[in-house]
Sequence to fold (949 residues):
Amino acid sequence: MQFTNFPLSPPPASNFAPEYDAIFYVLVALTVFFSAVVGIAVIFFAVRYQKGTKADRSRPMYENLFLELTWTIVPLVLGIVMFYFGTSLYVKMRTPPKNATEIFVIGKQWMWHIQHGNGVRENNTLHVPVGRPVKLTMISQDVLHAFYIPAFRVQEHVVPGRYTQLWFTATQAGEYHLFCNMYCGTQHSEMGGKVVAMPPAEFAAWLANEGQSASPLSMDQMGAKIFNKVGCNNCHGAEDTLRAPSLYGIYGKRRVFADGTSQIADDEYLRSSILRPYDHLTAGYGETMPVYEGQLSEEDVLNLVSYMKVMGTTAANQPTSIVNRHSAPTTASGTNEATSLAVNAVQADATDPDATPTRRTGSPAVGAVAAEGRNR
Amino acid sequence: MSSTDTTLGELHPQPHREAPSYLDDGHTIASWLLTGDHKRIAMLYLISVTFFFFIGSVAAGLIRFELTSPAGVVLESETYNKIFSAHGVTMVFLFLVVAIPAVFGNFFIPLMIGARDLAFPRLNLASWYMFMTGGLCILIGYIAGGVDTGWTFYTPYSSLYSNTQVTLVLVGVFVSGFSSITTGVNFVATIHKMRAPGMTWFRLPLFVWSMYATSLLLILGTPVVAITLLLVIFERLFKLPIFSPELGGDPVLFQHLFWFYSHPAVYIMILPAFGVVSELIANFSRKRIFGYHFVAFSSIAIAGLGFLVWGHHMFVSSQSMYESVVFSLISFLVAVPSAIKIFNWTTTMYKGNIVLHSPMLYAISFLGIFTVGGLTGLFLGSIGTDVHLTATYFVVAHFHYVMVGGTMLGFLGALHYWWPKMTGRLYNDTMGKINAIIVFIGFNLTFFPQFILGWMGMPRRYHYYYFAPEFQAYHVMSSMGASVLGLGFILPAFYLTMSLINGKKASSNPWDAHGLEWQTTSPPPTSNFLETPIVMDEVYDFDPVSEHEQDMKDQAEHPSDEDQGHMPGGGHH
Fold:
């Protein structure tokens, strides 16, 4: 719950942000000024000239050309000035520098597919270098989308049948929201992810390493990836549901089965329940879970069990659950820690070659990946 | 006004009434559903739009409830999308565009210009039937599965991708569009040809001027959106290649055609409210409106310029940079006539003799809220700033400041102002005032936080925001405000309905207002006036100076009666 968190502006993280914010705050000042003028005048008149008060009402005025011209010309001039600044910023936004690094974006219901010049691909996450202009060339595979990075103050529609462009230079390293901001269907609100702005050297290393981060994942982190990928998260959430029990804190607890017997949930039990769930069906549940025998490697199972031991203990260890959504992964700080926020389907995962097509291997096409998340 | 006490005393023993009121002129259902009387048709519209407003509000309530939690509360995304679409479609096409013109325009244009009825009474009735047919199609569409495109129906999502009842709802919007066109034609013909002797153009109340401007927009804009939506239906049903690139069409073309109507439609929604506010400010300041000609012509200027700014909805749509620059410039120009109006209304109150009855409180709220709504439009008209703000909650807040704070407050103001004339009953004015304050507080609490949300980058039409929990505090504030605002919309239903049961009978002119509609009985007879009125005096012909002197004299004579003058009386003569 974030009831004490009242942020007042998005982080200014691109070359456009300072100029943008200056224009924005001038407009805020104009709005406050004129609203105050009208508001105070109206209240003052309503009090002072209320029927029965002893105010001077002699020589009432009904027309006055000077006043009319004043409040025609003053807003007009102010408007033209603001038009000039707004337009000049916009022209900059629409004129990418020649030396900009080009990155390609494909929008698709409901994911972003991003391809770097050297062939590195990522989904729903865009890595960019700080201090270097980046130009995005974008197209949609189906309906209209919009590529929107609030922290960079940039947005442009992603249109089927034609290329659109936007450019920016990130100025602060960090992780920022990436949103689809053109309504595109059922899971529109989850078509997003993050933009990771990295120092140039780090970015170059990331790119050279085919988009893999240097640090390896722990077993439970890998388990979490598998948990989300094979769809365990579709039914096993933070709380018991009609379909499946929650797995939070399951390790070491006594489980009662449909046939009345019971057993402590140890490694052996967890492994067999993943591979052959109906051997020991938990009391109160039907035979709905798929049998994973032959579907998962022993390595996957080890990682999954390892994940179940820590599941739910920290924010990062929560599944990107599709059930019990009020427990969906949020971070307490409210900052841009978009880490585990793999939105909807399957997030690009450079460290797990089976997860998503981050590299040009024989992995499934973009469409297949998006389908994976919802056609269950 | 002379009264020759004649007939019908037995049935309705009212000594002041010369002819049966339009409400008593037949009590059968057929006498309402087959009526040609503009006043009865207006009442039919009032009931219909209130019903549709209720539907749209329930949808709004669900949206606000759902957004209190970053990961939703009760709805699936699919349902959420249908709910916000139902909210938009209902409110725009079945309430905002229709409400003030079809209810108050219908009822009061003939009364204000001294005519017996609108120029084409049967066309008027036909337009209500078209509206209801369209509304029914849309409602059936909701029940049969709903529509999930948003009220904007952007292609190619609406034409090829959505699996919902898009066709049925589009047919509904298409049919109800014709009701707009016929209403507009009817108003233009009436205002041109049926003014009473002496009612010159510059003696017209400003409400009539704004209705005239609205009618022009209805007639010129609605056919374009009708054809556009028809093309979407054809693409959906017959794969006619118009908008979808897969078939060889252009998705951006739809946006041009759609906003060519839908931007003027914004003015269709707000101009009538401008008209209402002009009436309220003048009549409750007891003073001729300041700069009458500027206020009147600024409506026409808005109607004209309003057709040349549609591209400001499309700054990030991939339209050409040069197009955007031109549209932005004209958008700044169209802000000027609105500013002129605001300043003229404010100045009208200067040296007035202001009576703060409930309609006036709605008008004052309108001034404050609409000023903010208009000024925040500059953020969106300026292209550079629009790039970040477009399609975020900033836009949502902006147009709700204009549509709810503008049109809806105008509607409430008009309802409170003309209710005694329409029904012949006085409602509880204190309740009206309290309610105006509830609406003002609830409104600002609902929509002001949304400006900040949009500035932070919260996209509109988002069901979940669990990936951005920093938005939650503002969403919760907004939802709390919506509960207050909801109360402000429910209360009038009670005290206005109560007034029909036990309200005091209204005199012809309970507000001491100026205008022909106040010279006939409340409620008016079917023929509006027993004799065609002849207009001798100027519009808003008040004399605040002598009225004030009279007040001072009364006070000196009866100091204890001071407060009595503030209650709307059954008769002041």
